[in-house]
Design goal:
Largest sheet: 5 strands, antiparallel
Number of strands: 8
Number of helices: 0
Distance between the termini: 129 Å
Oligomer: single chain
Shape: elongated
Radius of gyration: 41 Å
Order of helices and strands: EEEEEEEE
Strand content: 25-35%
Length: 166
């Protein structure tokens, strides 16, 4: 008997997986400081809301309107607010002017809702206050216009300068 042998080559492959290993990242640190500073000084600013009497139809009477002075100050700061007599005053009387007809209408500004304390730049007409814990105060401005029914129609205006001292 004869034996025959057959050789079968079975290819065997050896796979070597080469995984790329990254080099260690080199990080460096550098630090700096940022300093913050603020200086708070006593101070105030004001803004205003107009006193607008609106439209008037030719009847006589008294018209009242309200505006405001908003005060923002350093907390707990005393202040005094003054108002001049306006651009068109005649002595101590405030007046609005109609630029078309050059006619005038008298009005007044008050610091109280009873319309008894005129708001002026004189010592007894100034308004004193304190900004309180929040630093904010809103002070109403009470305007009163006495209309006699004889004024020329048109727009009447005036500008009053408001000053705060602290």
């Amino acid at each position: 008997m004869r034996l025959s042998t057959t050789s079968v080559l079975i290819p065997i492959s050896l796979a070597l997986a080469a995984t790329a290993v990254p080099a260690e990242a080199q990080s460096r640190r550098n630090a700096g400081d940022i300093e913050m500073a603020v200086s708070i000084v006593d101070g105030c600013t004001i803004s205003t809301a107009d006193v607008a009497f609106g439209l008037v139809i030719g009847t006589a009477g008294t018209i009242q309107a309200t505006g405001a002075v908003d005060v923002q100050c350093t907390a707990d700061l005393d202040f005094v607010i003054k108002m001049d007599r306006g651009l068109n005053n005649l002595g101590r009387n405030r007046r609005m002017r109609n630029p078309t007809s050059n006619a005038y209408m008298r009005y007044e500004l008050y610091s109280d809702p009873g319309y008894t304390s005129r708001w002026t730049d004189r010592r007894n007409g100034q308004v004193s206050g304190n900004s309180g814990a929040t630093g904010y105060q809103t002070l109403p401005v009470y305007g009163e216009l006495t209309f006699d029914g004889t004024a020329v129609s048109g727009r009447y205006e005036d500008t009053v300068t408001v000053t705060i001292e602290f």
